[in-house]
Amino acid sequence: MTGADDSEELYDNAPCGSLSTSLDGAITKVNATLLRWLGLPREQVVGRRFSDLLTVGGRIYYETHMAPLLRMQGEIGGVALELKAAGDNRMPVLVTATVITGRDETPQYVRTIVFDARDRLAYEQELLRARQAADRDRERLRQLVRSLQQSLLPAVLPTPPGTQTAAAYHMASPDEVGGDFYDLFPLPDGRWGFLLGDVCGKGVGAAAVTAMARYTLRTALFHDPDPATALDSLNAILYQDHRSVTHRHCTVVCGTLTTGGEATIVIATGGHPPPLLLQADGDARYLPANGGPLIGVLADATYRTQTLTLNPGDTLLLYTDGLVDAHLPDAKERYELEALLAFAGRLAPASAASTVEAITALLASFEDGLDDDAAVMAIGATSR
Amino acid sequence: MDVRARNHVVSGGRTDGRVVMLSHGFGCDQNMWRFVTPILEKDHHVVRFDHVGAGRSDLSAWREDRYAGLDGYAADVVEICEELDLRQVVFVGHSVSAMIGVLAANHRPDLFSALVLVTPSPRYIDDEGYRGGFSRSDIEELLESLESNYLGWSHAMAPVIMGNPENPELAEELTNSFCRTDPTIARSFARATFLADNRADLPAVSLPTLILECRTDVIAPPEVGAFVRDRVAGSVLVTLDATGHCPQLSAPRETAEAIDSFLASLP
């Protein structure tokens, strides 16, 4: 066998289709492999346009995308098309084409290589099926996470007489339940109990402790409406497990609200950022720091209460540290307490609803900078 | 809204010349005009842009309802003319943009002075007594293949085949980038293009009109060029000695010359 025969044989029977077209698009040369795929004799292929060999979708795609690109960049690759194959079949192919230039760099003709992509297409469809299954599973997981998160929060936030209340929960990730919680509920003596907290960590383990913390505090306030005693109880219960792998600590702000007459608030915090008061006169200030330590960490922690009067037009804002730990977009710093105070100063005076609305918009503006869940609850006094 | 940024509007040529606005069709972006632009810029004020969804347009401006039909694209053309304070515009539309220009000019004839329709088609699907070149099932097949996302660039393969090991960034930037479109937008644009029927809009054209077609064009066959000429009163049909659907790329000089001599014939 001579060398010439050898390369001719390789051209004709290569494991890929090969063809040449003149610059006006007419096919001048085609190999045997491609003719076999097409099921056509050579004379029915030479002289036609390459796009005539494609299914109609491919033909339009070729003329509107491939041919222009070939003109503009001299080569194209990895284009997925379908051939009108022998026996009325369609054959998925990957096409690569190059403009061959002469010695003076002027384009002479176009060489096109056609790869059989049937196996590849089957593989891609398998991948697509797997991805669709994964997408469905993830949607189911998100549904579950949403339901679980909602079960940790009151379905409807009550509005004690003479007040306006509002709350919001921002989930950092739709795939994982967070450990933030809040609640507002009536007490047997006519007062109201409220609480807002953050169990460390995320996921189902945190959710279990979150539910336990919320109901422990509710029960404690139900029996003894002293917020400091309620925090003592929660601290003792969480501390019991402090050696266990399932142990988690939390931060909480917890209080009671007396309405009818002056709205009076008794409040205690443990390891929690200070509540913020937006005053009717337009000022904003943090409540004095007299909080106790993180809850569940020390055997002998003590918690103290402070009392404040909520004048008509005042709004008390409770929030978790997701808000003050958020990274500002385009900045390395976190959104610190001073920034929140300045924000509240610009906002005050504001109703509970508009305060929560403004904070929700602020949280949304952090975009990806918000890496932790954030809960906010506002209680505003409307009238005596 | 910043219309210039939304449509990535680029101007060049003689600012005291006639305004020639180049509008690309389904597929690529304003790069389609790269070979004719330098020729036209010698005498004219040439304005090019990308339709929303194509090229370097602002993808966030794309709205499914606005761009479900050609009217939304035509409204963009009018907005560009108003934003740049363009008057007496000669609108040159390729492929589907020819009909976008017809709609814009019929809606606001005060902005335009002439139309150049490059390989136009008022309807791609055959109808009784009309040959558009495609059967309904052909077009459904096209839309379906775009729907299944099978047709087009195989993302995993492209870098391997096109990759330039010495200069990978360059390869990444250049590879097929002129014609890469978000699949959702491409599907919507294909639907707006290939399901459109603008035959009834042609007789309303009141501007001097030049129709350019190619000798062989599988997307807009010769019957369609003749149909457009017969429906637009006083229009001129020129058949370029070119093949394919994009004469501005395959025969840029002839295309620019045809446009130039048409412009010279205008009052």
Give your account of this protein's structure:
In chain A, α5 (203-223) packs across α6 (227-240). In chain A, β7 and β8 (192-199) form a beta hairpin. In chain A, 35% of the residues lie in helices and 28% in strands. Chain A has helices at residues 3-13, 32-38, 56-73, 118-151, 203-223, 227-240, 321-324, 337-347, 352-366, and strands at residues 17-22, 27-30, 75-85, 89-101, 107-116, 163-170, 180-186, 192-199, 250-258, 263-270, 276-278, 284-286, 306-310, 315-319, 374-381. The relative contact order of chain A is 0.10. The longest helix of chain A has 34 residues, at 118-151. Chain A has nine helices and 15 strands. In chain A, the strands form three sheets. Chain A has a five-stranded antiparallel beta sheet, with helices on both faces. A five-stranded antiparallel beta sheet of chain A has the order 6-15-14-11-12. In chain A, strands 7-8-9-10-13 form a five-stranded antiparallel beta sheet. With 384 residues, chain A is of the alpha+beta class. The model of chain A has no long low-confidence stretch (mean pLDDT 89). Chain A starts with a helix and ends with a strand. In chain B, α3 crosses α4 (96-107) and α5 runs antiparallel to α8. Chain B has 267 residues and is an alpha/beta fold. In chain B, strands 1-3-2-4-5-7-8 form a seven-stranded mixed beta sheet. Helices cover 37% and strands 17% of the residues of chain B. Chain B has a single domain, classed as Rossmann fold (3-Layer(aba) Sandwich), CATH 3.40.50.1820. Mean pLDDT of chain B is 87; it is low at 153-175. In chain B, β4, α4 and β5 (112-118) form a beta-alpha-beta unit. Chain B is built from eleven helices and eight strands. The longest helix of chain B is centred in the N-terminal third of the chain and has 14 residues, at 70-83. The two termini of chain B are 36 Å apart. Chain A binds chain B through residues 23-26, 49, 51-52, 55-61, 63-65, 67-69, 71-73, 75-82, 92, 94, 96, 117, 121, and chain B through 25-28, 31-32, 34, 95, 134, 138-139, 141-142, 144-146, 150-162, 174-176, 178-179, 194, 216-219, 242-246, 249-250.
